[in-house]
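Lab meeting, item 3. Inverse folding demo.
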């Protein structure tokens, strides 16, 4: 097997003024890519959801003396302005979340928007994602899907949340805490009907597991809250269309 002609070791200069969105492991350190490690090593500064989490990752990678500053849900707007200034002044900034791909159900969107609005470049180093990993392992259709983020905490809002996607034919992907998992699955069953689903726990970690079944079966299984982070995948709606002969008025239905 020969390498694809569009693969190359050539790359953008990590030290050039730019925002880098760097995906980091969701559990297994070996999932860090060589490119991600190089960008983290060579960037002038790293903006991170939790500096303590990122420092541990850098220590494991042997990256020392790196400037870190926080960029999380509570300070993202202010951090975005600071990041824009750093890049405008000629520095490169890597943005990471605690795990996975930044800006996907994690801080980052406001930063990306601010950098783009300032006319500055943004690049991504793709990698680990609990969303895509759970979808691939679910055994449910992967050709179309909707990522919904974290489910609302209150049942009423959660049920309306599911009602909004009840007719969506793609697989539904959401995140939930172990403590609310059973309630969320039960609400989904009430609103969406009895669909197949999969709950993926501790992805890429030692105790990774995926449980598959109907929404009701899984809700009963988790009556006692399980341990570990969970990503839920639910089968999409089945749409049945009435066959109509488009060449006959009224679809060929008899009158009288």
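The presenter then showed the designed sequence:
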């Amino acid at each position: 097997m020969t390498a694809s002609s569009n693969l190359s070791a050539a790359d953008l200069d990590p030290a050039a003024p730019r925002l880098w969105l760097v995906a980091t492991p969701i559990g297994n350190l070996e999932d860090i890519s060589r490119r991600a490690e190089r960008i983290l090593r060579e960037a002038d500064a790293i903006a991170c959801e939790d500096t303590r989490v990122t420092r541990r990752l850098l220590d494991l990678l042997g990256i020392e003396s790196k400037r870190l500053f926080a960029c999380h849900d509570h300070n993202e707007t202010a951090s975005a302005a600071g990041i824009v200034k750093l890049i405008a002044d000629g520095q490169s900034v890597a943005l990471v979340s605690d795990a996975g791909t930044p800006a996907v159900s994690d801080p980052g969107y406001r930063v990306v928007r601010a950098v783009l609005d300032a006319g500055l470049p943004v690049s991504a180093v793709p990698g680990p994602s609990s969303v895509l990993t759970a979808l691939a392992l679910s055994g449910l259709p992967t050709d179309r899907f909707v990522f919904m983020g974290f489910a609302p905490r209150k049942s009423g809002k959660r049920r309306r949340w599911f009602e909004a996607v009840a007719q969506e034919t793609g697989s539904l992907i959401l995140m939930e805490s172990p403590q609310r998992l059973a309630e969320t699955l039960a609400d989904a069953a009430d609103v969406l009907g009895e669909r197949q689903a999969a709950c993926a726990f501790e992805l890429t970690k030692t105790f990774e597991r995926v449980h598959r079944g109907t929404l009701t079966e899984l809700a009963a299984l988790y009556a006692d809250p399980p341990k570990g982070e969970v990503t839920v995948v639910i089968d999409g709606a089945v749409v049945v269309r009435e066959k109509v002969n488009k060449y006959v008025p009224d679809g060929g239905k008899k009158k009288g």
